Amino acid sequence: MNLVQSLLQTYGEKKHLQHPVADRLTGRHLASHIEATEKKKMPARVCIVCSKKFDDKGQRVRKESRFECKQCNVALCIVPFYERYHTVQDFWDLLFYYSSQY
């Protein structure tokens, strides 16, 4: 047990989110279109939530969104995940609820 505590003190715990939960839940997080470039006129990124889902065959779902939160630097589907991601602390628990609906 001392070894485990020593390792945790040295290396810390793994972080699952790019930003602490408090940052995600506070402030003004406005949705914006991902800006076009010379190569991509209608750019999209993989939705951070949808990429955590699995289909019936056990493969990851890959759904792209044209919207992002610049403050969090994540792409999100506007409905329903954008608002939920920024207002619910235990966001990942809601993923299972919405997985059956979308």
Strands, helices and their partners?
Layout: H1 2-11, H2 21-25, E1 31-33, E2 45-46, E3 64-65, E4 67-69, E5 74-75, H3 78-87, H4 91-99
Antiparallel strand pairs: 1-4, 2-3, 4-5
Structure description:
Pfam families: zf-Tnp_2 (PF13842). This is PiggyBac transposable element-derived protein 4 C-terminal zinc-finger domain-containing protein. Residues 30-86 form the PiggyBac transposable element-derived protein 4 C-terminal zinc-finger domain. InterPro entries: PGBD4_Znf_C. 33% of the residues lie in helices and 12% in strands. With 102 residues, the chain is of the alpha+beta class. The chain has helices at 2-11, 21-25, 78-87, 91-99, and strands at 31-33, 45-46, 64-65, 67-69, 74-75. The chain is built from four helices and five strands; from the N terminus they run ααβββββαα. The chain has one domain. Strands 1-4-5 form a three-stranded antiparallel sheet, with no helix packed on it. A two-stranded antiparallel sheet has the order 2-3. The model has no long low-confidence stretch (mean pLDDT 77). β4 and β5 form a beta hairpin.
Give me some keywords for this one.
102 residues; alpha+beta; 5 strands; extended; PGBD4_Znf_C; PiggyBac transposable element-derived protein 4 C-terminal zinc-finger domain-containing protein
Mean pLDDT reading:
77
Determine the N-to-C terminus distance: 44 Å
**Secondary-structure element pattern, one letter each:** HHEEEEEHH
**Strand pairing plus helix content: what structural class?**
alpha+beta
Radius of gyration: 17 Å
Largest sheet: 3 strands, antiparallel
Structural domains: how many? 1
Question: Which residues sit in consecutive blocks of at least 5 with pLDDT less than 50?
Answer: none
According to DSSP, the number of beta strands is 5
Strand content: 5-15%
Estimate the global geometry from the Cα principal axes.
extended
Strand numbers in spatial order across the main sheet: 1-4-5
Instruction: Count every helix, treating DSSP H or I runs of 4 or more residues as helices.
Output: 4
Q: Roughly how much helix do the residues carry, as a percent range?
A: 25-40%
